[in-house]
């Protein structure tokens, strides 16, 4: 953390409220320039002394982008703001964050730029936070302009959070996408456009997950309906990986200003659960800077193994997740980490619902869906056309579905049945156990394949549906996924 010299306004020194001729509103503007060297702190704070009688605070900024040698990181600087309540980690001061998506923003009681929270501009020390994401060898030259507008504060609109459940929807399979971005962070779609696309994708639920802000939450209520549950959440973008806070209480904000070495993640994971949410690492092998997951998997509720169109980083995440399943077998404590998939859609042509998580829940409500995700009663599909069933049955009528445990004597024959529809005719069906792939079959006309095993040979069985591998793919590497299930566990009794 680095704190710069404060920006002072004359009215703050005199203790009076700024005004123009005959008491008319007036603008007070200050511009601050400076230089940040390489190796600067993750976050640089510029204090702004705000006097009484301010109606709006507006901020704009620029920074230079000098040429750098090939392979060298250039300048990239994010921005946000904290109010007079301070900058304590997880404290009350947060008022907005736009990362690198905007060069200016404004906050008043009545309204705020997307990514920022409307509310009174209270007197005291506010803090503009610069996030020098990367700094060129030449350093980063910045210019920040702050404009205070005097006047009487208006009224802050009452938030309209979406309802937590859709009445009349009982136990069933529900489809959702829990990783989505809008103009409230670095997306290009409005909230209205997002809701329309979710309905077009035949989703039952979505989760609002803009980067490092809760600013969308108050506006989501009117967009929900009997056909669409909208949960309020956040994508928490740290310098050592990103994670989804899914299904938070409306208006809840989760801080992002820490690294794995700071020993802060666990406390925020607990805070998310107290706020009614669940914790899901996003794209653990993401290719962008600081997006790789470095916090481990001891304090998460699920892991996003499929993020948007299938790529090699999804394949790597899937293998890591499968190793975590085998680790759960070794521990023998019954605890395991389920998989889920989300689109991470930002803008056209990103497809909302590619992929989507299909959850068995007791109702279309926040807590039931979260319970289904945590329990692994779910599978992942590339679109709403894909239908899938995976079951395991024992010799005496024992039966288990996705996420369940089937207890049988070690040598009893267990029949695993996979039925798939809505996928291309050239799809490949795979069954995977703790040993690896145990069955690979072309999609039959019936859409059903079966395999027999015992609990002594397989600790779990899960299914994958794959497209053909593209030309030039190395032997043994399957094609992109069309569906992935969580496992059925085979317990020896």
From TrEMBL:
Indicate, by first and last residue, each region the UniProt record lists as having compositional bias (Low complexity): 10-26
Q: Which residues form the Polymerase/histidinol phosphatase N-terminal domain?
A: 176-240
Annotated NCBIfam families: CehA_McbA_metalo
Task: Extract the ranges annotated as region (Disordered).
Answer: 10-30
Matching entries from CDD domains are given as: PHP_HisPPase (cd07432)
Molecular functions per Gene Ontology: 5'-3' DNA exonuclease activity; 5'-3' RNA exonuclease activity
Task: Name the InterPro entries on file.
Answer: PHP_domain, Pol/His_phosphatase_N, Pol/histidinol_Pase-like
User: How is this protein named in the record?
Assistant: Polymerase/histidinol phosphatase N-terminal domain-containing protein
């Amino acid at each position: 953390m680095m704190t710069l010299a404060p920006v002072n306004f004359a009215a703050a020194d005199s203790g009076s409220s700024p005004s123009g001729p005959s008491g008319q509103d007036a603008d007070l503007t200050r511009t601050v320039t400076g230089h940040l060297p390489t190796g600067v702190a993750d976050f640089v704070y510029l204090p702004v002394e705000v006097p009484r009688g301010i109606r709006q605070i507006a901020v704009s900024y620029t920074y230079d982008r000098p040429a750098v040698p090939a392979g060298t990181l250039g300048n990239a600087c994010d921005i946000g703001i904290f109010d007079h309540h301070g900058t304590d980690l997880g404290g009350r001061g947060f008022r907005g964050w736009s990362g690198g998506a905007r060069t200016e923003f404004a906050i008043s009681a009545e309204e705020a730029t997307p990514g920022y929270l409307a509310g009174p501009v209270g007197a005291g020390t506010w803090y503009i936070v610069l996030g020098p994401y990367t700094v060129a060898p030449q350093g980063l030259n910045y210019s920040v302009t702050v404009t205070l507008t005097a006047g009487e504060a208006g009224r802050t609109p009452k938030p309209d959070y979406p309802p937590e459940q859709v009445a009349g929807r009982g136990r069933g399979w529900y489809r959702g996408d829990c990783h989505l971005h809008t103009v409230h962070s670095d997306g290009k779609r409005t909230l209205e456009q997002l809701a329309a696309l979710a309905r077009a994708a035949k989703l039952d639920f979505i989760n609002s997950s803009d980067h490092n802000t809760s600013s969308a939450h108050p506006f989501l209520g009117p967009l929900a309906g009997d056909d669409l549950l909208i949960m309020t959440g956040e994508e928490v973008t740290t310098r050592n990986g990103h994670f989804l806070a899914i299904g938070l209480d409306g208006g809840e904000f989760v801080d992002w200003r820490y690294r794995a070495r700071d020993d802060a993640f666990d406390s925020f994971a607990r805070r998310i659960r107290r706020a009614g949410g669940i914790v899901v690492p996003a794209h653990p092998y993401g290719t962008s800077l600081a997006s790789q997951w470095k916090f481990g998997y001891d304090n998460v509720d699920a892991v996003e193994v499929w993020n948007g169109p299938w790529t090699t980083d999804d394949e790597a995440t899937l293998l890591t997740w499968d190793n975590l399943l085998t680790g759960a077998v070794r521990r023998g404590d019954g605890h395991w980490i389920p998989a889920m998939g989300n689109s991470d859609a930002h803008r056209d042509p990103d497809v909302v619902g590619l992929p989507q998580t299909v959850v068995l829940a007791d109702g279309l409500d926040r807590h039931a869906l979260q319970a289904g995700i945590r329990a692994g009663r779910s599978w992942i599909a590339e679109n709403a056309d894909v239908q899938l069933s995976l079951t395991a049955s024992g010799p005496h009528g024992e039966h288990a579905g996705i996420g369940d445990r089937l207890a049988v004597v070690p040598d009893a024959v267990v029949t695993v049945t996979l039925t798939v529809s809505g996928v291309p005719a050239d799809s490949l069906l795979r069954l995977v156990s703790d040993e690896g792939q145990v069955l690979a079959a072309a999609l039959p006309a019936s859409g059903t394949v079966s395999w027999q095993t015992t609990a002594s040979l397989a600790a779990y069985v899960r299914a994958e549906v794959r497209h053909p591998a593209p030309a030039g793919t190395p032997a043994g590497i399957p094609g992109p996924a069309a569906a992935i299930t969580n496992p059925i566990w085979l317990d020896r009794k």
